[in-house]
Design goal:
Keywords: Coiled coil. The chain has 212 residues and is mainly alpha-helical. Helix content is 88%, strand content 0%. It has one domain.
C-alpha cells in the first residue's frame, strides 16, 4: 500500500489523467479531501524551504558586496549557485500550488454534484453550507498563496541580473556597482518572507478546518 501511494501520482501525472488517479486513490481509501490536505501541507513545506533558500541567497549577496580580494570566479560561482537554487525552489512552490488547485477543483465539483443525491433536505442544506464556507476559505487561501508566489519573481529577476552582471564583469568595479542593489533585494526578500508566512498560517487554518 505504501509503495502504491508513491507510484500512483507519478504514473497518473505522466499520463495526464488526474481523474483516473483520484479514482484509483479512492479505491484504496484515499479521498480527494485527504489528497488536498496532503498537498496543502506539502505546499507549506515548499514555502518554508523557499524562504530559507532566499535567505541563503541574500547572505551570499551580502558576502559578495563585502568581497575584498581573493578568488572572484569562485565568488561568482557561489552566487550563481544560490540563484539557481532559488529558481528551483520557486518552481517547486508554483508546482505545489498548481497541484492544490487541481485537486480542489475536483473535490468541489464532486461535492456539488453529490448534493443532488441527498433525500434528507436538512442534511443537504447543511452540506451545501459547509461546501460554500470551505470554498470561500479555499479561495482566500489560493489568493494568498498566489500573491506569495508572485513575490518571488522580482527577487529572482534581481538575482539573475546581478549574477549575469558579475559573470560578465569579474572585477572589483563590478562589486562596487552591485552594492547599490543590496537594499532593494533585501527589501524584496523580506516582503517575500512575510507573504509566505501569511500563506503558511492561512494554510494551517484551512487544513485544520478540513480535518474537523
Amino acid at each position: 500500500m505504501r509503495y502504491l501511494w508513491l507510484i500512483l501520482p507519478l504514473f497518473f501525472t505522466l499520463t495526464g489523467c488526474q481523474s483516473a488517479y483520484y479514482s484509483a486513490m479512492e479505491k484504496v481509501g484515499v479521498h480527494k479531501r485527504d489528497i488536498l490536505v496532503d498537498r496543502v501541507e506539502e505546499a507549506q513545506q515548499s514555502q518554508q524551504e523557499a524562504q530559507q533558500q532566499f535567505k541563503s541567497a541574500l547572505e551570499q549577496f551580502s558576502s559578495l558586496i563585502k568581497f575584498d580580494g581573493g578568488d572572484l570566479q569562485r565568488m561568482y560561482e557561489a552566487t550563481d549557485s544560490e540563484f539557481q537554487a532559488c529558481s528551483k525552489a520557486a518552481a517547486e512552490v508554483s508546482g505545489r500550488i498548481d497541484s492544490i488547485e487541481s485537486v480542489a477543483d475536483a473535490l468541489f465539483d464532486e461535492w456539488q454534484d453529490e448534493l443532488d443525491l441527498y433525500s434528507n433536505d436538512k442534511l443537504k442544506r447543511d452540506s451545501a453550507l459547509k461546501l460554500a464556507a470551505t470554498k470561500r476559505q479555499y479561495t482566500s487561501l489560493l489568493k494568498t498563496m498566489r500573491r506569495a508566489e508572485d513575490s518571488m519573481q522580482p527577487v529572482l529577476a534581481s538575482l539573475q541580473d546581478n549574477t549575469l552582471y558579475l559573470k560578465h564583469n569579474l572585477n572589483a568595479k563590478a562589486i562596487g556597482a552591485l552594492k547599490g542593489e543590496f537594499n532593494s533585494i533585501q527589501k524584496d526578500i523580506n516582503r517575500l518572507i512575510a507573504e509566505m508566512n501569511t500563506a503558511i498560517k492561512q494554510s494551517e487554518q484551512f487544513v485544520a478546518a478540513l480535518k474537523q
